[in-house]
Amino acid sequence: MPVKTFTARAHTNIALIKYWGKKNQDLILPMNNSLSLTLDHFYTDTEVSFDQTLKQDSFYLNHEKQDTAKITRFMDLVRAKAHLNSFARINSINHVPTMAGLASSASAYAALALAASKAAGLELSRPDLSRLARRGSGSASRSIYGGFVEWQQGHDDQSSYAIPIEEDLNWDLCMIVVVIDKAKKKISSRVGMQLVIETSPFYPAWIKQAEQDLSAIKKAIKERDFKKMGTIAEENAMKMHALNMSASPHFSYFEPASIEAMQLVELLRSEGIYCYYTLDAGPNVKILCSDKDSSRILTRLRTRFAKNQLLLAHSGPGVRLIDKK
Ligand code: ADP
Ligand code: DP6
Ligand code: CO
């Protein structure tokens, strides 16, 4: 029987209200709802085919052979759903730095969920794709959709999945990404958030705050209140990073240049140029602004950062199949 190959493309997403902590580590159920913006600039292409001649899964990332322990656990879920027992060939290309706090796990597992389920002969709905992607990486549940997306925490496998808030934004929003370090982080998101849950005395306050931030940002988005949306996103990110500093042992993803970029944003704001920052689990700073201000902001950032450290992103689309190149 000829082997069928499917290739999927998924974009990364940046959370404006962060997911930071799990109530169930096996099912990847989060402690709070989160909300993100899918980005056009960063994405993953993943190709999957099942092959009865394989003795184990084969996984190449950016043309380099990888360990298969984590991906095989995910592929086992797909095999169980499809009643399949053959292994798969998985080839993936990240058009985003891997494990650098630019959400490669989000685009990776969203693309893998679609490509692997199709290759296994499954036709999953988007909510089912979101549930499946979630099992690989929580943030991947949101990359099934474009634009603004909310991951509803739920209480079990069935009830925890993302929903689109607005897929096609009719809003001149953009995100400038200041790439401070593309290297792999020392503490993965998975390990960092678990350490926080187990040791930060501030975690209960985070849960309460995240809920309030989420409803406030949804209102700001609906009302197209950019300043309110940016303020809530920036403050929510800082609360998450404060948790890391309050863990034991304490840790931080910030580097000196991250703080310089944040201070520059604050200076621009004091001059009346409205822009706001957010950081995920990594040192790279993402600046939310209006398209009309982006060139002024970029000009100012160039006084401190090299041209190739500054990238411009807009709202991106949800996961889809693409033709194999
Ligand atoms: P990031 O900030 O990039 O999301 P994480 O701390 O979430 O970093 O870790 C990324 C995880 O995603 C790692 O386990 C890494 O191996 C996995 N990953 C990244 N890219 C891919 C890919 N294209 N296919 C499968 N797994 C991937
Ligand atoms: C800071 O989804 O990468 O980017 O579920 O353990 O794979 P796992 O973690 P991951 O965590 C993302 C954390 C974050 C915030 C967010 O994207 O909501
Ligand atoms: Co991640």
Care to describe what's here?
This protein is an alpha+beta fold and 325 residues long. It folds into two domains: 5-169, Ribosomal Protein S5, domain 2 (2-Layer Sandwich); 174-313, Alpha-Beta Plaits (2-Layer Sandwich), CATH 3.30.70.890. It is 36% helix and 26% strand. The chain has helices at residues 69-82, 104-119, 126-136, 189-199, 203-222, 226-245, 256-270, 291-301, and strands at residues 5-17, 22-24, 29-30, 34-51, 58-61, 64-65, 87-95, 148-152, 161-166, 173-178, 275-278, 285-290, 310-313, 320-322. Strands 1, 4, 5, 6, 7, 8, 9 and 14 form an eight-stranded mixed beta sheet that branches. The chain is globular, with a radius of gyration of 19 Å. The structure holds adenosine-5'-diphosphate, ligand DP6 and cobalt (II) ion.
